[in-house]
Write a structure and sequence with these properties.
With 121 residues, the protein is an all-beta fold. Helices cover 0% and strands 48% of the residues.
Length: 121
């Protein structure tokens, strides 16, 4: 199994970034996926999730309306479009695989290595 995040970088407050997570070694289209982040010195924070078919999504209250999760099962890739970024959202962003296909219960059985996002003027 492999999950490889990309797309991180430094952006000014109010800016946008699009993260990608390339999956391999398993049947990507059979599993729900999530984005989770960890700010410096803080614990893990769940950001968003999407079911295996891309029909159902959910978001943390701090990002709802600004972030959009999506997936392309033909390309085995998960995305996170982040708009109107705030300084407090500087963090390492991880994609995580769910052991199930739905988003009713959030569980993770495999993680990527993360991509760093910095939001600063």
């Amino acid at each position: 199994l492999q999950l490889v995040e990309s797309g991180g970088g430094l952006v000014q407050p109010g800016g946008s970034l699009r993260l990608s997570c390339a999956a391999s070694g398993f049947t990507f289209s059979s599993y729900a996926m999530s984005w989770v982040r960890q700010a410096p010195g803080k614990g893990l924070e769940w950001v968003s999730c999407i079911d295996s078919g891309g029909r159902e999504t959910n978001y943390g209250h701090t990002v709802k309306g600004r972030f959009t999760i999506s997936r392309d099962n033909a390309k085995n890739t998960l995305y996170l479009q982040m708009d109107s970024l705030k300084p407090g959202e500087t963090a390492v962003y991880y994609c995580a695989k769910d052991p199930d296909d739905g988003i009713g219960v959030l569980e993770y059985d495999f993680w990527g290595q993360g991509t760093q996002v910095g939001v600063s003027s």
